[in-house]
Specification:
Blueprint lengths: L2 H12 L1 H12 L3 E2 H10 L7 H13 L3 E6 L2 E6 L2 H14 L7
Antiparallel strand pairs: 1-3, 2-3
Helix pairs in contact: 1-4, 1-5
């Protein structure tokens, strides 16, 4: 995994709102934007505008953390943890086993 992709993944998961969206998609894949917005309200969280949720989903999609399919005119989002696993492994591989610099 190259440094740019690694940065995209870590930037995407750095935001707590995006992590909540990932949590929702891990429980139930293939959710639309409207379903993801409604889930926040149902859980008593502060509601977000569709535009705000859409922007968070775009960041996750660019990082490869969600896959998108279409059902008619509805865009469905599904979690894909493959890039997160690869990023974690790449970062750990780079840093594990290195002792303190002397």
């Amino acid at each position: 995994m190259d440094a740019d992709q690694l940065n995209l993944v870590f930037k995407a998961i750095a935001d707590p709102t995006r992590r909540r969206l990932m949590d929702r998609l891990s429980v139930r894949p293939n959710q639309s934007l409207l379903e993801l917005c409604a889930a926040a309200v149902a859980k008593g969280q502060t509601p977000m505008s569709r535009q705000a949720v859409s922007q968070h989903l775009d960041v996750l999609e660019r990082a490869g953390l969600i896959a998108v399919t279409w059902a008619g005119r509805t865009k469905l989002h599904t979690l894909d943890l493959t890039p997160l696993r690869a990023a974690g492994e790449a970062w750990l591989e780079k840093h594990l086993g290195k002792g303190p610099e002397t």
